Amino acid sequence: MSTASYQGRKVDVLALQGGTSNVETLLDQSLFGTSNSGQVCAGINKLIQRWVLEFLTEAGSMPYAADRGCQFLTELYGGQLQSLIDVETAFMFAAIDVQRNLVNEEDDTWFDDERFDTATLLQATLAGDTVSLSVKISSVAGDSRVVIVPLAVVP
Description:
Strand content: 25-35%
Shape: globular
């Protein structure tokens, strides 16, 4: 995204590093890489980051915002997700909570490419101690991206 794309927008610090479009990339999300810390994001990338952070926040984990997050990690780490059907069902319920939370913080002054429309689970895998989700996130503007969320299950 060029610098002109940030004019008139509020930007977020790009916290989740490691994902790029249309090229092979390691599936390793990290906070603030050494070579690219300080980057900012707007548009669909800002929406993707908002969705991932909300999805990876356990419901009730923030006393000052107890309604934020969802139950997905709680169920995953609690050992409740034993099959792909369990993972897919937990995702569907979590996606409803994430959608509600994202839409509730938006208003008509937001750019449409930063406003949430849908999250669609394209693929889920459960292998040993790893769950991987491939999720298509779409904005009100019609932009979409696929994000891969790899999660290690801590025994």
